[in-house]
Records
---
Amino acid sequence: MYKNNPLKMYKIFEEIYYSRNYDNIKTFRVMEEVSVPFNKIMLNEYIYDEYKNKYGYKKVGNKHFLNTIGKTILRINNYNIKIETDSNYPIFFDDIKNYNSNLFVCDFDNKDYFWLDKLSSLQKEYSIVK
């Protein structure tokens, strides 16, 4: 619906991101209209299988912690995936892209957004996503 207008998508998600608890029902309805849910159980299992034997990895519920060169936390929900990292390009991007590359990425702190499948190898090196 909004794939050809990423700025409009970003603005909608930004409004959802910054909404407060008093708008929970309205916010959830808007999220349902603009997002497609994915199978968080399957994605959690996929990520776990990729990292379960790697040093510095831990999983607690829907949260995946990777503490190697940098610190990264991946939280998987029904309608969104949240990544907190001190890396410019979190390694989880590669895994998520292998699982489903048709995802819209928003970095609200840096006002950045892009389609995951459009991310090139050059952008990986210089991305401001944090």
---
Amino acid sequence: MPSALLFIGITFLLILEGALTARLILRTNHSLLLGSLGLPISAFTNVLVVFTWTIFGVALTPLSLIGAHLIITVLLATVNRRTSTPYEKNELLVLPRAECPLLWERGRIVPIICCLLIGTTVISSFAHAVLLPTFQYDSATNWTMRSEISFVDRHIAFDPTEVRGMAKPQYPFLFHALQITANQGQSTWNDTAANTILWLLSITSFLGLFLILRKLTLSTGALVTLTLILGIPLLSLHLGQGYADITLTQELLLSLACLFVWVRTKENRWLLFSAIIVASGVWTKSEGLLFGFIPWLLVIAGVALINRTQKKYSMISGLIALGLSLPWQLFAWSRGLLLTPHSSDTLIGFHREGLREAFFGLFDRGSFGIVWYALIVAIPLMMVKLRTTEKSERAELLPLMWGLIILAEILFIYLFTPNVRFLLNAESYYRQMMIPAAMLILSAGAWFSKQKNR
């Protein structure tokens, strides 16, 4: 019981800290939205705290970690109390009665089905993440294993060999830092606490995604889009935790959704929030730089070219994202760590033998269901619609390019580098393709929902 109370207290502190930060950035009083964004934001502030203590050689203890978060939370609460900025009320969820019918009313079968499907996924992921111990192979040799070793060492582990069972010390450590903080005060490593905090991070991230989508479209459109994303077979499996791929996926989805809101409303606070979340992705996995920051920067540059009035704030947000992302790259370089998952990743050469598996991996292996079949229909339709769209609204299609860029990057990685072996062995290729699949679904859902509801 004391262990559970410690975990609950730490989780509440992190949610409160993140909610206060989100309130300052988004300038809204919507408690459910702020609560849902609490963990995604505090996971990032937490890794910055751990990084700071790593730089100065401070041990990771309850005093250094929980004490730091208490100070940050008190400061944020003070700033929030004294700010004179006008805040939005709960208009994010206030819809006309006709647009927000009761789920059990006649003819409202789609929302009911969506809720049932999402509920099933949540229950299944809860069982795997909270009730069962760590079961993923890579987590036992890298992800959770590195967190446990770091918890025992009281410092982030950068083992050059795998003697202690930990691989890839070059990985950023947002995943590990959150698990370590959730375990503070425990006498020994608590595997359940480590996985539960990550599960809560995923659930609140997708709740926040849904609430942001409701700002873009009607309730049913947001619900269907979320159901399609969570319905990707491989993604629903990863909600059981164990890998950081799901963490990176949900971060990029949140950042993309905020980008959509910024493009449509021209409210710069959403771009700032998007910048912070995409920087968080850089601290989550090595792929966060290639799949997150660089495509994000290209998209906002494209938006700025179309809408010149947004150029100045695009540059400011880009610099903020760069400033928040760069410390990890500089630290890894200074420690002689790789900036890629494998030392051979820079050996370029076409591998024809991977073509067949790259194609069938998307359409014939079951990991994605019918997702890619649907996308090869939806994306061309979006392009056709673009021809009849007013010039001022064409920027709304640019976020689609983020998912397409990631798709192209992954195909290049597995067809033009030695990583082709992981494609032929049916390993990491599928986990990485989960990211563009989810992002393209979000882009298509936001686009078609708006077209339908105009």
